[in-house]
């Protein structure tokens, strides 16, 4: 997760409260999704950005996870996401995201 997005997430958590936020990611690999998820839950593991040492514990999901997929209009999901879903390792992404939520999410 780049430094500007870290800054935005931190500002939103301060403004709206971490308990009121859900972060939805769309990275193409489980490892990349996990790194971004860890950043918004346990702090920036690279120690380079605004979330270094900031444990927000935010709820975080990948757009292809069932919890998010069921919340999105089916036509919009098909148009915007379904093509990518065909080439992603969804099981790997779900496994990585579930692991991060289990370890670090507070809400």
Architecture overview:
- This protein has 107 residues and is mainly alpha-helical.
- It is built from 6 helices and 2 strands; from the N terminus they run αβαβαααα.
- The protein has helices at residues 3-16, 30-42, 66-69, 74-80, 82-85, 90-104, and strands at residues 22-25, 59-62.
- The protein has a two-stranded parallel ribbon with strand order 1-2.
- α2 links the parallel β1 (22-25) and β2.
- The longest helix has 15 residues, at 90-104.
Strand proportion, as a percent range, falls in: 5-15%
Instruction: Kindly state the percentage of residues in helix.
Output: 40-55%
The structure class reads mainly alpha
SS element count, helices = 6
Number of strands: 2
Q: So what's the oligomer here?
A: single chain
Low-confidence stretches: none
SSE pattern: HEHEHHHH
Q: Quick one: biggest sheet?
A: 2 strands, parallel
Task: Write a concise keyword list for the protein shown above.
107 residues; mainly alpha; two-stranded parallel ribbon; 6 helices; globular
Brief account:
The chain is mostly helical and 107 residues long. It has helices spanning 3-16, 30-42, 66-69, 74-80, 82-85, 90-104; strands at 22-25, 59-62. Helix 2 packs parallel to helix 6.
